[in-house]
Amino acid sequence: MEQMMMSTCINIIVAAASFLILWQIYRSRRNRTWAAPHGCTNWPVVGMLPSLICHASDFHDRYLTATLRRHGGTVELKGPWFSGMDSIVTSDPANVRHIQSGNFGNYPKGPVMKEVFEPFGDGIFTVDFESWVLQRKKLHLLIKNNRYKLLMEKATHAKLEYGMFQILDHLAENGDESDLQDIFQRFTFDAICIIVMGLDPRSLNIDFHDAPLAKAFDDIGKGIFRRHVIPKIAWKLQKWLRMGTEKQLSIAMQRFDDFLYSFISSRRKQIIAKRMDDEVEETVDDDLLTAHIKGEIMDKNDGVLVLTEDKFLRDMVLNLLGAGRSTIASTLVWLFWSLTNNPHVESKILAELNSNPPTLEKIHGDENVLINHPYLINLWKLIIIFLMIIMIYRP
To answer: Could you list the residue ranges that cross the membrane (predicted)?
Structure first.
């Protein structure tokens, strides 16, 4: 009896799936939309996912570019049912200006994105309207400061000389292979942690050991990605039951929060202690977190010290780490991949670098090569390649 019921259920499911497929074929042929104009067939249940997977190897540089060109710069992509992966892709400058500047207030991120990006809290990635404007102004004041540029140059230089170059030399001497994307991910994570928090987690190491902070950050990113691709009801249920990928995400968030709150509290106490001795002043080596806390102390009204909540600083730090890590790493990977496939361009870049050697300056008491902003702006060929990579392979 049970076997008959099971067989009946399977037959019903197969019949229903067959009906949906045949109905889609009939409707598409009737409306002449079976082969979607942009080359993606919108299948029942799975949407356009099969077509996107088939073109995964050339998705950015050929498939998506040709699709956007065929449709005037804007297309709608349909993901599997209930996955929340439906999206509109545009490369039309007019549309970008309309959304990002002209009518930005009409396009809020909304509660759905805030829910998916729960680990980022109330940071600039998830908030809208007045809160977004306020955070944007604060970050601009910090980032546009010349001290930030100097800190970024020093942090990048230090990680290159004492991290990246040593690892590449070690790999070359031993003839070992390694994942370049993993190396860039570690490099950018260390650099952005130094810039944002003044802390080097040392995830970029010869043994490729995972730093606890970097591991927790990776797990958070994986958890957010899974929330994008599985139905909302599925990950909501996992979260409620504390199981599966949501359990991993919860553990990663707890580890990251425990570290960040402790770090922020310690840093604030150090700065307030210096304030008691009238030693609080902005320096070149101040990271963004320190600069923000010092700014609060130096801008107190009527002698009353009003401190930002640790939650706000936690969200700010996590959002800055998210903005500066994978985006830069993926751009660097696409850059070197493109240069490898275009040796004539690589030779021109090398010729430009050889004809414009960097200057030598004293850094940490030693005479080292200093790659700074005034030097880089003269490398116009390299700048053009970077801009092309960013336009073609969006980070």
So the answer is: 6-26, 317-337, 375-393
